[in-house]
Amino acid sequence: MDDVWPWLAALPPPAGDAPPPWSLPLAASPDGASIVLQADAAAPADGGGGEPALVVFSLSIYSANAVPRVLWTSNGFTASSPAALRVQLLVQLLDEVVALSPTVPCLGTNMDHGDASEVKMDAEVVSGVVGAAGADDVSAPAAAFFSLALLLRLFWQCALDSPADSGYLFFRVLGAEIERALADCRPALGVFLRSVGPDVEERFMRSLGYMLAKWCLLREIQDGSSAAKPTAPPRRRALPVACSSYAAEVHGLWVLKGYAPVLAMPRVTGAASTPSVTALPHEAPEEPALRYGLVHQQLEAVAQLEYAVRARDRRFMAVSVRVVNVRVRVARLGYRKDDDADANDDDDEVMDGERHFPSRIRLWVGPRFGASYATGPSLGRSTGNPERDVEMTRTVKGAFSGAGASKLANGSGGVVPRIKAKMRSSARTRNQSWRWEQEAEGSAAVFEGVLYDPVTGTEVSSWRPGFGGGGGAGAADPRNGMRRRNAGPGRAFSKMRGLVVAGDELPEEVTWRVGREAEGRTVRWRLGLKAWVSYLPNEVRSRHFETRCVEWAHEVELPLVVVNGDGSATD
């Protein structure tokens, strides 16, 4: 796949007499089957003799004993267009994979405001992405980004409109190409996602996430079948290359966005656990529908931090950072049925609630590792000191029987009076589902939030049967407390099954001090996010539970320009 990008650039202009088609084998299997990209010249649609010939691309499967099958055909592109042929082809590929995105709409199905299938990429934007990634023919990011778009379109074609053997050939032959494209296209993918806006970004990443979920599932099945062989290689625990992210400085905000198919995230396991989903009874969902639903999920995380550089003293500048938003959600990679009267809608709604959920978040920010120009951080929040109200009541009661009381009054002895003393105490504590803390690690400030079961107080992300978690060995089982977690007024998540942390939860700033001699420079700071997601049964009856985590780290720019209170820069 690496030579597709330079091959497209080297295509000669179509001649008037329609030369033989140009073809490039993309991959071949040992049994003789191959996938071929072909370019051919075609006459204009109106048949006009003065119009330039068009170039049409197609993807076909060639097998040893069968007629070649055309899987997909592109539109006709004009070679004389200001946009290069390969850019025109890339635009169509991106348009189609965005339209095929398996998104579940949350804002209703009324598309008067615009349908995703009608959204078209701007050729200038795509050209800018290619140029930013490297416009030369040997540029790895641009070539890898085109390969990823081509592989994604080919996957959807095999999944929707082609025979089953086409999909098997796709993953068997092109699995390594997917991994290579993901690893090499990160710079171009980041530029593309920043350029198209959050709506198109979300749909593109869910389309990509669906393909990666299928690929990860196939890898797990292959690992499970090879585990029984004595000479089998070690199992692959996760697929970090499938967990994409980017970070940027935009309008005074540092923004980090990350996407990770759940099956690509490494599992946080106990001592007796193994990495395969087919390992132990509690790690393998018994129900096929539950297994399918848990595989087709994707973690989507957004962190926004606001920074400011102020001059509080002639000797130094103060760099302050505060959390504006942290949004974490596990999206379902599937389609919602249009028929509201369907009998299976209730079951589909139940399975929609069986999702992984965020159980721990760690966000950190600070100067680049090893930098010595900044002093800090100075944290703005103390370690938690929870309140506990204790009420104590003492009651003394005395009682005399009737006969004994008269004898005692006559002084002749009798029944000893009975006295009862009773003391009662009660304690009341105020608990929240999420507890947020600030810490420091070197020169970086760390914001960390942990989810606790509201019933037992157990830390969800670290709980294991027999291992404890958040309370030592033998901690209380949180599975009952986390049932029906998406309903009721005391729920820890939004109705869209996500977590939103804003300034009302984390209002405190973290500050560093920088000498005035650094004023005017632009320095690099590090920004990272680590997220844990857990699954405990919500509505269904199942023994399955697990916790997975993913970590992203980037560098962002910090301009050391002092800003006054009115937003203007100082001279």
What does this structure look like?
The protein is α+β, with helices and mostly antiparallel strands. Helix content is 24%, strand content 32%. It has helices at residues 4-9, 85-99, 123-133, 140-160, 164-184, 186-196, 198-226, 288-295, 345-352, 402-410; strands at 22-28, 34-42, 54-63, 66-78, 244-250, 253-261, 297-313, 316-332, 357-367, 374-378, 388-399, 418-429, 434-441, 444-451, 498-502, 510-515, 522-535, 546-559. Strands 5, 6, 7, 8, 10, 15 and 16 form a seven-stranded antiparallel β-sheet that branches. It has a five-stranded antiparallel β-sheet with strand order 13-14-9-17-18, with no helix packed on it. A four-stranded antiparallel β-sheet has the order 1-2-3-4. α2 (85-99) crosses α7 and α4 (140-160) crosses α6 (186-196). The longest helix has 29 residues, at 198-226. It is flat, with a radius of gyration of 31 Å. The relative contact order is 0.10. Residues 232-236, 270-281 and 468-473 have low confidence and may be disordered.
Topology (SSEs and partners):
Elements: H1 4-9, E1 22-28, E2 34-42, E3 54-63, E4 66-78, H2 85-99, H3 123-133, H4 140-160, H5 164-184, H6 186-196, H7 198-226, E5 244-250, E6 253-261, H8 288-295, E7 297-313, E8 316-332, H9 345-352, E9 357-367, E10 374-378, E11 388-399, H10 402-410, E12 418-429, E13 434-441, E14 444-451, E15 498-502, E16 510-515, E17 522-535, E18 546-559
Antiparallel strand pairs: 1-2, 2-3, 3-4, 5-6, 6-7, 7-8, 8-15, 8-16, 9-14, 9-17, 10-16, 11-12, 13-14, 17-18
Helix pairs in contact: 2-3, 2-4, 2-7, 3-6, 4-5, 4-6, 6-7
